[in-house]
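pasting input
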Amino acid sequence: MLDYVELEADLGEEERLIRDTARRFVDEKVRPDIAEHYIEGTFPTELIPEMGEMGFYAPNLDGYGLPGVSETAYGLLMQELEACDSGLRSMASVQGALVMYPIHAFGSDEQKEEWLPKLGAGEAVGCFGLTEPAHGSNPSGMETRAEKDGGEYVLHGSKTWITNSPIADVAVVWARDTSAEGRPVRGFLVETDRDGVTTNEIKEKLSLRASITGEIGLNDVRVPEENVLPGVEGMKGPLSCLTQARYGIAWGAVGAARDCFETARRYALDREQFGGPIARFQIQQEKLAEMATQITTAQLLAYRLAELKERGDLRPQHVSMAKRNNVRTARDQARVAREMLGGNGITADYSPMRHMANMETVYTYEGTHDIHSLILGQDLTGIAAFE
Amino acid sequence: MMKVLVTVKEVAEVEEDFEIEGTGIADRYLEYDLNEWDDYAVEEAVQIAETGDDIEVVSVTIGPERCEETIRMALAKGVDRAIRVWDDALAETDLLDVAAKTRILRAVVEAEEPDLVFTGVQAGDDSFGATGVSLADAVGFEWAAVVNDLDVDAVLDESVARVHRELEGGVDEVTEVDLPAVLTIQTGINEPRYASLRGIRQAQRKEIAEKHLADLGLDAEAVETDVRLTEMYEPESESDATIFEGSAEETAAQLAQVLREKGVGAE
Ligand SMILES: Cc1cc2nc3c(=O)[nH]c(=O)nc-3n(C[C@H](O)[C@H](O)[C@H](O)COP(=O)(O)OP(=O)(O)OC[C@H]3O[C@@H](n4cnc5c(N)ncnc54)[C@H](O)[C@@H]3O)c2cc1C
């Protein structure tokens, strides 16, 4: 397994064991059927509680039965999940970083007690509703609104591209509170069985097929006041969740790229043309050399993020740089790996083209590549290009 | 209060391509992991502990510091504490035979006084396949070998191990063994769990006690052996295997040609 500058040699024992147990779980439980799920456009939902038992959801948080592992261990977990498929890592990212994290960080004690144990165990599924049909890269333009009515809020609007909405029990919905001064964005816990909630599935995606995606329709949905996340107001709420999830993506992309590399290396050594393995040709070796170098660079960035996060010095812009770089790396290198596999490379029997197609989603969600360029541009020049 | 002792071993797994150096396989072709059978033994013990009250599961291994990670994984799956026996005398022996293992494990059993001892049926590397039964004999426990089913409730309620044993030809023997007993555990008796992240965290706080031979009342003589490994070689293959590649039609045609050449068939 590619770890060219031996970053894994410096891991603690606990981190190595977490990497190993995740790798084994993925190899034995998920990898054998993942191509089939990809082709069918389904997620292995029976694994949701099993992943919960493993502690794969928000393991870097403490309390409520959560293990509170190191940020490096959390990153390694995301890497192993995405080495299998971005859909698997997306499941863990949404449940952990986008649903459990805001409840943990901004929720009331009652909300935490009600939801964190169930979500952590995978007995309940959550989703995160920020994107709207008319507001993707600029979510602060959101139109979904919540109007206070006695002890309740009435929610109206629609969200789209929401991972897991069709199978979710609860949605963290971000909406403008029209009854408060300045119409601040607030987070609402909306149980999907409430009257007025619809969650249509978006079918026939050509990327991230082993992941369920849908809309959330909110047609005058009434939720009690107690369902508002009390601890946060404004775009800081959703954006802080995205920083957590993007951190996991920066690690996950390394896993996907590594899987492409390992598949291509193995194939090049096995496949014989002109009387010997294609790995003996300089052009193929150059591809492997470049791939290994790019992946190692991405891996270094991920490890550095973990150190900064662990000691509390991580800025969202650091995460933007790593998400932007590492996903681009995975996207580019998946294509190189695919081409090294020749005709076989376009089938689902091998992972590179599946990873390559998945990376189109990962390149776009959680802030597109371009948007992260603008975030870095603003940080580097002090001038915001997007306001 | 009941105690289950599980003997576990880290075994070397050999890569597909390897080289022999002297009487062993060159280290660079080896990967170390928990012996497959022991994984089932650990799971069986942990299931007993989860079913009953106040049951302690202790693992014992004979091995160098390197195997602590493997032991830690067993602790993460629910073993309460571990004993690791190692000694300069052990580091110096090339081969630890069944008699030597029995002497060491007997000392551990005498110190721990477990009600049940689980061993794997065999170890994937040296495959002596005798340690469990030899240990039972040495400590005077009842035993059952190649156990592929255990009635956990009977263990807890009646202090009896009601076991199924896998015999040749698909015959299943049902036996009752009074405790204390040694059971050698066969793969397939259960479905070993994966260590959860929570379990791995908890395992960091569990004890792995290192014991030298002297701590067990033994000395270097205990690991002396009359068995010597004299040679290691790859047997010459008697015949070559041919793998046909291609579609079903192509491979069938190739097979037909070989059969014809060998004079098989009525053409
Ligand atoms: C499979 C999948 C799952 C998803 N899951 C979720 C989820 O769980 N929850 C959720 O809330 N959302 C989710 N999303 C939505 C995702 O976050 C958005 O698609 C993303 O933010 C981009 O928004 P958009 O699609 O509206 O594209 P747009 O914002 O319309 O962008 C279109 C193009 O314009 C570029 N662009 C936009 N603004 C600028 C600018 N200022 N300067 C330069 N270029 C610009 C973009 O980079 C992009 O190339 C998911 C998306 C997908 C595909």
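fyi The mean pLDDT of chain B is 92.
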